[in-house]
Design goal:
Layout lengths: L16 E5 L6 E2 L2 E2 L3 H15 L3 E5 L16 H11 L3 E3 L8 H8 L6 E3 L8 H4 L1 H4 L2 H9 L2 E4 L10 H12 L4 E3 L1 H15 L5 E5 L8 H10 L2 E4 L4 H7 L14 H14 L2 E3 L3 E5 L13 E4 L8 E5 L1 H12 L3 E5 L12 H12 L3 E4 L2 H9 L8 E2 L3 H8 L5 H4 L5
Parallel strand pairs: 1-4, 1-7, 4-6, 5-6, 7-8, 9-10, 9-15, 10-11, 15-16, 16-17
Antiparallel strand pairs: 2-3, 12-13, 12-14
Helix pairs in contact: 1-2, 6-7, 9-11, 10-11, 12-13
The structure holds adenosine-5'-triphosphate.
The site of adenosine-5'-triphosphate (ATP) has 19 residues, from strand 14 and helix 14.
């Protein structure tokens, strides 16, 4: 997949109708937005297109919309928040059909720099989420509203939805252009290029709970990285595969053979897999998860049968930090231990600090590790923190993201 995609800097939108797929999937409580991060993140692309004289038709999904269109999942609160932030009228088309007469009329009345927001795209059900089964009518209707399409919804880029990728086919058919916005561009530049064309040494760090959840990520990063560090719960299945006692630590029994295969593959490729050399162990898993626990640090080959490894120990922290210190690119996904408990968060903190201190390009692949880094106040020390957990994992798996692939090549 070419990652050299047309961006909003490469297209001329003056006087044109521009359909912009945003990620306005904000958390709501009692009809109020509780976190506006995603709206703020969308502003640079929107402002750029407004300043360039485009007529902006914004669209997004919000929530899962399991029981059909409803006011609780309407984009109305987003329209109000956007209006305040842009200091400009945002015409909200509240029609649950998303496209149709009301949308067409609102778009027809637009001048350069005007902004229209369509209703929640998931109100069209399977026409949005499963166009391959439900047909492409909705995608075509969206394209009919516009001359140009811009995708800036990285959190949805791994989904072949009507408003994310299928719409581009109909824009192309009518001679229009498909570009990515600044948010998408940044994700492609960091995550995509780190995996496809990294500055070396390239160190990938994986953690989190289970091997089973990240089979393709492990396999792909083993091929792409020079060193693959594995911590967190998933490290114990690797240690078990090497024949070590792991006590009551997290085990994916069905994946022991897979881990053996990966260890053998690393050897044949001349790559390093770094596993923890010591563990912070506990006797009983804390309940609630952040309750005080008594810990005992043991070496990896001395794990007592009645204890559970819940964090990497100080020797592992030093070993992993040393690998990070010599790297030019570091990608990290998944915590090193049960970081929800402050006593078991030391390993995750140590890795976050090692990345913060490094001169390498440091990339956090969303999810729990992004939350951990932000919680520790180290967010601004990283080169990039991905905004899409699912989408970033698929990038790390080496998959082609429909929302990225659908944009025109430069
Ligand atoms: P997500 O995929 O949800 O965005 P992630 O990829 O960062 O997050 P997960 O695979 O979901 O990570 O795993 C995170 C969970 O793993 C945390 O809740 C953490 O407590 C747990 N975890 C990490 N290490 C261990 C361990 N040694 N034993 C048990 N649980 C662990």
């Amino acid at each position: 997949m070419s990652l050299n995609k047309k961006s909003v800097d490469d297209i001329n939108v003056k006087g044109k109708r521009v359909l912009v797929r945003c990620d306005f999937n904000v958390p709501l409580k009692d009809g109020k937005i509780t976190d506006e991060t995603r709206i703020n993140a969308a502003l640079p692309t929107i402002q750029k297109l407004m300043n360039d004289g485009g007529k902006l038709i914004l669209c997004s999904h919000l929530g899962k919309v399991k029981n059909g269109p409803n006011e609780g999942e309407s984009l109305a609160p987003v329209a109000a928040a956007l209006e305040a932030k842009l200091g400009k009228k945002v015409t909200f088309v509240s029609d649950y059909n998303v496209t149709g007469e009301a949308a067409t009329a609102a778009v027809a009345a637009m001048n350069e720099g005007d902004v229209v927001l369509l209703q929640n795209t998931r109100f069209r059900g399977k026409e949005e989420t499963k166009p391959q089964d439900a047909g492409e009518a909705f995608a075509k209707e969206l394209a009919d509203l516009a001359d140009v399409y811009v995708c800036d919804a990285f959190g949805s880029a791994h989904r072949a939805h009507a408003s994310v990728s299928v719409v581009t086919k109909y824009i192309t058919e009518k001679g229009g252009e498909n570009a990515v916005g600044y948010l998408m561009q940044k994700e492609i530049d960091f995550l995509g290029n780190a995996v496809e064309d990294p500055k070396r040494p390239f160190v990938a760090i994986l953690g989190g709970a289970k091997v089973a959840d990240k089979l393709n990520v492990i396999n792909n990063l083993l091929e792409k990285a020079d060193t693959l560090i594995i911590g967190g719960g998933m490290a114990y299945t690797f240690l078990k595969a090497q024949g070590y006692e792991i006590g009551k630590s997290m085990l994916d029994a069905e994946k022991i053979d897979y881990c053996k295969e990966m260890l053998a593959k690393a050897e044949s490729l001349g790559k390093k897999i770094l596993l923890p050399v010591d563990a912070v162990t506990i006797a009983e898993f804390p309940n609630p998860i952040d309750a005080p626990v008594e810990t005992l640090v043991v070496d990896y080959d001395k794990m007592p049968a009645d204890r559970e490894g819940c964090d990497i120990g100080p020797k592992s922290q030093a070993l992993f930090a040393e690998a990070v210190a010599t790297a030019k690119t570091v990608v990290w996904n998944g915590p090193m231990g049960v970081f929800e408990n402050p006593i078991l968060a030391e390993g995750t903190l140590a890795v976050a600090k090692a990345l913060a201190a490094s001169d390498a390009t440091t990339i956090i692949g969303g999810g729990d590790s992004a939350a951990a880094v932000n919680q520790m106040g180290l967010g601004d020390k990283m080169s990039h923190i991905s905004t899409g957990g699912g989408a970033s994992l698929e990038f790390l798996e080496g998959k082609t993201l429909p929302g990225v692939a659908a944009a025109d090549d430069k």
